[in-house]
Amino acid sequence: MITVKLPQKTETLLAEMAKASGRTSDQVAVDAILGAIEDWQDARIADERIGSDDGVRVPLEDMIRSLELREAEERTSKPAAE
Length: 82
Description:
Number of strands: 0
């Protein structure tokens, strides 16, 4: 568990947001913290992927065709529903 000291204006805004959304201030704060963590994780993943980018690009039409072929193969390989 952590305790966070908020400036009065921030605490007031948090309370208003909580009341407007029908949640507690704690719930709003936890959601905001989780959102910030998810954004941070997404940014780390993006940085890693940019760092390992080999520059190879696939045209959208080729990707769509490939996915359509894979779906068709999956449909034909699955037994028919009874």
